[in-house]
Amino acid sequence: MLPSVYHGVWRAAVHTLRTRGTPPCRLLSTAPLADAETIFALSSGHGRCGVAVVRTSGPASATALKHMAGLTRNLPPPRTALLRSITHPQSKEVLDRGLVLWFPGSVAGMRPADAGEFTRRAFQAGKLGLTEVEGLGDLIHAETEAQRRQALRQMSGELGRLYQDWSHRLKRCLAHVEAFIDFSEDELIEDGVLNQVDSSVCDLQAEMERHLKDERRGERLRSGVQVVIAGATNAGKSSLLNTLCQRPAAIVSPIAGTTRDVVETALDIGGFPILLSDTAGLRDSPDLVEREGVRRARERVEQADLTLVVVDCAHLSSDAQQAAAFIQGHLTSVLPTQEQPESVFPTDRFLLVLNKSDLLPEEQKQKLDRELRCVSGLPPVCLISCHTNEGLQDFLTVLHSSVKTLCGDPLSGAPTLTQARHRAHLQQCFAALAQYQRYRDMDMALAAEGVRLALTSLGRITGRVGAEEILDIIFKDFCIGK
Asked: What's the rounded Cα separation, in Å, for the pair 470 and 458?
């Protein structure tokens, strides 16, 4: 039985035997914290692969490296790749050929790494800020190109630098206020120091307010845009879902009310993530189960970022004005009750999908498409056929444009909020600065406390203040070996 100190390295080395004849494994050995246990993990992930990376960190790393790479005397030069035979530490059987790298800084014992423990050590050593750590976590879980870009931008530290700048300015404000409290009676404080604090606090509030008013684009991109398919029964909602995800995810039948519950599927639309939901047809029904399905459908529409309102073309009049009136009435029945206006329709949250266009004569179809686009107050109109896929490419272009608008370009403009945690702490920071302004002319001690609370709230985002209680939450979603 292999000693536990080598068990993880042995497991990873055995993993490489499955891919003999492929590129070699890499054994990375690091030990960033002197007082830590030695941990190890298969950093490259499980499954068949051309290269397996085994990563260790801690004081026993040097011993493991020597035994498995046949280094009887000296370790390789720091940060230099060395091609060696990877051997069994007891039998000395050659397991594979691979590269070993030594990053010095090294205790006894070795154990499997917890999820995110390597990154946590980097954070605790001051090599990564907390927002950068969260960016790395998002990068690990990114499923689309836009998510990857946003995660890379946050991982680069741009968001962290913005918050650090605000923290430095708040520290300066707090120092000035406390100095004024302690020394103003001795006339040791220059005139106008509080005016400078007032100006800085106002500037910070304005910047934070703009930062918070981002329409949750970063959070939406991180978690996926909620897109709901809604409409009357038998309009082709389930057919549209199946067409978009290219598989029979929902049951399709000519029987009205087939879909009773919400059917969800995740999609990548031009690099942007969406969570697409098919819902029950909106109608009055004596059936208790169907009525529950309709209730859930309306609830999803209220929560949706974007709703695809599907209408059966066969129900539309050949007269464009009558067709527009029918659609307006149908949209009103779909629109959440609290959002039904007198005249203004929130067109940015809806797309109008006229399905079964293959059943219309070509001339009527072109006229309907042309004239409905000119009707004011309607959301973007797309004529499609889920049966023939006619118009599907144009619809996907419109859908991609709408989703991109909802998420924004992750590479342009100021960095955006990506976590609900960030937003909550920033809102607390903003409220604390309002406390400073409220008590500024009444009680300077309470005003100073407002600045102090603002600084603490901001510090919880960057991990510089009160980080312990949130570290477990952040690191629990990391992969082993990261």
From this structure: 14
Judge whether 166 and 461 are in contact, CB under 8 Å.
Answer: no
Delimiting residues of CATH 3.40.50.300 domain(s) in the chain: 219-407
* Prediction pTM value: 0.71
Q: Tens digit of pLDDT for each residue in 107-135?
A: 456 677 788 888 888 888 888 888 998 99
Q: Return the CATH fold of 132-214+417-475.
A: Four Helix Bundle (Hemerythrin (Met), subunit A) (1.20.120)
- The confidence band for 415, taking pLDDT boundaries of 50, 70 and 90, is confident
pLDDT in tens, 462-480: 876 544 544 554 455 545 4
Q: Check if CATH label 3.40.50.300 holds for domain 219-407.
A: yes
Of 183-187, 267-271, 288-292, 427-431, give the lowest mean pLDDT range: 183-187
Domain with CATH 1.20.120.430 in the chain: 132-214+417-475
Query: Looking at the predicted structure, is the pLDDT value of residue 362 above 60?
Result: yes
Q: What is the pLDDT of residues 226-256, one digit of tens each?
A: 999 998 888 888 999 999 998 888 788 777 7
